Amino acid sequence: MRNTARILSAGIACFLFLAALQPALGSERLTKLIYIEGIVEVQKPGARFAKAELDMQLGKGDVLRTGSGSIAELELDDGSFVKIGEESTIGILALEEVGPGKDRVSLFKLILGEIKATIQKALGRQASFEVQTAACIAGVRGTDFTVTAEGDEAADVEVLEGSVAVEGLGEKGERGALSEVKAGQSTRVEKGKPPMAVQKIEAYRRARWELFAKKKKIFNSAKELEKAKIAADFLRVKYAQAEGESRKALLKQAEGLKKAVVKTALEMEKANKDFIKDKEKLDRETAKAVADWKRLPPEKRAKARMNYEIWKSTAPQPAFARRDRMKEILENWKDTPPQVKAVIIRAHKAWNSLKPELKKAIILKVRQFSQLPPWVKKKIVDNCRRWKGLQPEVKKRMVENYGKWKKLPPEKREDIKDRIEDFKNLPPEKKLRILKLHKMWQKVPPKMRMEWMKKHAGKPPKRS
User: Fold this and answer.
1) In this structure, are residues 170 and 192 in contact, taking their beta carbons and an 8 Å threshold?
2) Is the pTM of this model over 0.70?
3) Distance from chain centroid for Cα 379
4) Which of 4-18, 81-95, 203-217, 329-343 ranks highest by mean pLDDT?
5) 280 pLDDT exceeds 60?
6) Residue 304: in which H helix or E strand, if any?
7) SS3 for 30?
8) What span, in angstroms and rounded, lies between the C-alpha atoms of 438 and 434?
9) For residues 176 and 166, what is the distance between their CA atoms, to the nearest angstrom?
10) What percent of the chain is helix, strand and coil (3-state, nearest 5)?
11) Would you tell me how many other CB atoms lie within 10 Å of the CB of residue 91?
């Protein structure tokens, strides 16, 4: 009986010990993908790369990569953000809470490319955030910084706010010399060597991430505009079905929403134009910096600090990246059905026959399409399928009408949408009468139309 009591006491003590130890072992955390532009893929442990989706949850062991001209952003549970530049690959080594105080630990592996991390200071708890590359480790607490990794060769660390501790890594991954990089400074670390002396961040390097912020602002405005348009369409339907005082209230509400949509659309058009100008300016400054570095004689070039932009334009894609990408393509090709292979081969031949400017335009459209909500994508795909079955003269007329539509100011477009919605809700006999009048109007000579329009200019149109 005593032995049984001792065994039971020992078991309870062991259980309590393990329970007390559990917080120290750590609990897993997740990060969310909040922004995608272009081709962004995620690889889960033991799986192949697959298309990433907005609001996807990522955790330890996941790998994320972006294609050419593609960018993405992750949001951590503590309010920190990690932006991933184009042609970049980043792995999540650890995301967890450890110890009795549940201290947050975030550890990322930047394999190739560039990231920008904005880290929130932890309130009432300790936090650790590190970015590892093949050449160095950058550790921070409450700061804003960027890291670029040139594969297995070198890395750059640029600090925008706060300070970052940068440690060089030896050939076997051992930690070496430590350097503190403060706001406005950058350092470069080549594999197996200590960090170089800090220097001022070049203006065009800082401007790259300012452009990212502007593009994301346009993206968020587009989402809000899409929501407002859906709400406006809903109000149009309700207005057509309502009567009396409720109709007046809905009309007032719809007018307010319409003004907000027009205002947002105009702001977005301006923001897009400003973004294109800033991007062109950045591209010119980057090209100039690269050209200036290339013009240096070999002895001066060896002493001059190379940065990521210069490396990208002078060094071929790392052999390991080419090898891994080719291996993945071959594996996917083996599993592809013959009929799909035939389609891909035809598409590849057609693509190679296109002119460079047309390829560039198509790539831009694909990136824009990837940012659209799922229901908008489905609508576009359905319209494309219907387009194939149309007669050539119908296609020509639709292209001309679309060109005219694009030239209209936002307020005019919204007014036309209102009229179309009103027309949809009319009784059949009224629709028929309007269509007959429209056909008669089309037969009127252009000169007479202009005279009539001048005569009735400024008069409010009759709404059925």
Assistant:
1) yes
2) no
3) 21
4) 81-95
5) yes
6) none
7) coil
8) 6
9) 10
10) 55, 25, 25
11) 17
